[in-house]
């Protein structure tokens, strides 16, 4: 009897879905389209056994191409609710492979709010499975740390930090109490210098520091470690920094000190809602 009741309820839900949702998710009114996507996100989260499959996920994927920013935004926030729950990740694999390129392209969306949420969604995808995003996908997000729009840059900074800076080797645990050149931060500071030089936007160190300030404050304020990398002799088997790398480290260090002292973003970076120009 329980099974019969459940089947009957699922048949009703299916009839409502086909009779209402399938027509209204393409409604002429953007607000109605947004409500549809928001609700299907809730259904997939609450009753994943019935709704979290590609028959329903495809509607969210298609709607990511909607002309209205508010609708695209609802798609991303609905997906974030699903990717946040690691128990649901296995059910999202096909969707991820099919629509990943669209999500990556949305990091350059003309609406800043949409771009920010696209980056946050990719950060969740990264945490669910590192193999999903290619090196090219990641680089498309990395360069946004130099964006003039701070929320976009901060979201990209968090993505960059999760990808390149947040993993610690087991041997690092024994180094936690060490300081200066022998601290776990030493390799992370070098990684930051290498990233800065490879991005070839040397005049924008202040933008890079500001982008990572919220998620990597402890690293960016480890001036003792930076000093020791500049002043002390390399450890056995350690590659010394080149003159170019030392200059970049000094520039980054100055930017971190200025950021700590002035407590505001660098000149030219704001949080305005206006659409970026070509």
TrEMBL record:
One of its GO terms (biological process) is sister chromatid cohesion. SUPFAM superfamilies: ARM repeat (SSF48371). PROSITE patterns: SCD. It holds the Pfam family SCD. GO terms for cellular component: chromatin; cohesin complex; nucleus. GO terms for molecular function: chromatin binding. Residues 21-106 form the SCD domain. InterPro entries: ARM-type_fold, Cohesin_Scc3/SA, HEAT_SCC3-SA, SCD. Belongs to the SCC3 family. This is STAG2 protein. The lineage of its organism: Eukaryota, Metazoa, Chordata, Craniata, Vertebrata. The gene is Stag2_1.
């Amino acid at each position: 009897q329980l099974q019969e009741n459940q089947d009957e309820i699922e048949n009703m839900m299916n009839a409502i879905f086909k009779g209402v949702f399938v027509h209204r998710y393409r409604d002429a009114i953007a607000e109605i389209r947004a409500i549809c996507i928001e609700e299907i996100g809730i259904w997939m989260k609450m009753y994943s056994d019935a709704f979290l499959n590609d028959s329903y996920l495809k509607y969210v994927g298609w709607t990511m191409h909607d002309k209205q920013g508010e609708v695209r935004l609802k798609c991303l926030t609905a997906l974030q609710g699903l990717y946040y729950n690691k128990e649901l990740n296995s059910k999202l694999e096909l969707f991820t492979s099919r629509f990943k390129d669209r999500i990556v392209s949305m990091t350059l969306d003309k609406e800043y709010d949409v771009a920010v949420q696209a980056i946050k969604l990719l950060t969740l995808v990264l945490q669910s499975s590192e193999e999903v995003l290619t090196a090219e996908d990641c680089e498309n997000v990395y360069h946004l740390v130099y964006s003039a729009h701070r929320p976009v840059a901060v979201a990209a900074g968090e993505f960059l930090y999760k990808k390149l800076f947040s993993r610690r080797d087991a041997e690092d645990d024994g180094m936690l109490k060490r300081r200066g050149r022998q601290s776990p931060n030493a390799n992370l500071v070098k990684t930051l210098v290498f990233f800065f030089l490879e991005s070839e936007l040397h005049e924008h160190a202040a933008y890079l520091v500001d982008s990572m300030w919220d998620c990597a404050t402890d690293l960016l304020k480890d001036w003792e470690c930076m000093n020791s990398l500049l002043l002390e002799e390399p450890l056995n088997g350690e590659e010394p920094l080149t003159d170019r790398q030392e200059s970049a480290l000094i520039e980054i260090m100055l930017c971190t000190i200025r950021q700590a002292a002035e407590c505001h973003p660098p000149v030219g970076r704001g949080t305005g809602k206006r659409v970026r120009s070509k």
